[in-house]
Amino acid sequence: MDKIEKIIKNTDESNQDKVDWTKAWSTKYPILKKYQSEVDIPKYAKKIRELFNDLQTTYNYSELDAMLVLKDILAHEYLDNKNKEEEK
């Protein structure tokens, strides 16, 4: 874990922008290779944009901060639901 945290701390935005994260993560999660041809992306993008805009105006967040907050909420929602399913 320490190695991962060190890499994150030492990575700046210019390096992050050069990485195709979808491609990188798709080696572990193959759904990322194919969802673009299956999912109605504009439908979900519109809803996500509404959430971005709401966070930005309600809490005066930058777009980056709004994205990070939404990403964190999504991750927690996933993990909370996963844990509940495992308890059944």
Rg calculated over all Cα atoms: 16 Å
What is the strand tally?
0
In terms of structural class, how would the helical and strand content be classed? Answer: mainly alpha
- DSSP helix fraction: over 70%
- Mind describing the biggest β-sheet? none
The run of helices and strands is HHHHHH
Query: What separation lies between the terminal Cα atoms?
Result: 30 Å
**Low-pLDDT runs:** none
Number of H/I helices: 6
| Strand portion | under 5%
Query: What value does the average pLDDT take?
Result: 88
User: What characteristic shape results from the CA principal axes?
Assistant: globular
Describe the structure.
- By secondary structure, the chain is mainly alpha-helical.
- The protein has a domain at 39-88.
- The chain has helices at residues 2-9, 13-18, 21-26, 31-34, 41-59, 63-87.
- The radius of gyration is 16 Å and the shape is globular.
- The mean pLDDT is 88.
List strands and helices in order, with pairings.
Blueprint lengths: L1 H8 L3 H6 L2 H6 L4 H4 L6 H19 L3 H25 L1
Helix pairs in contact: 5-6
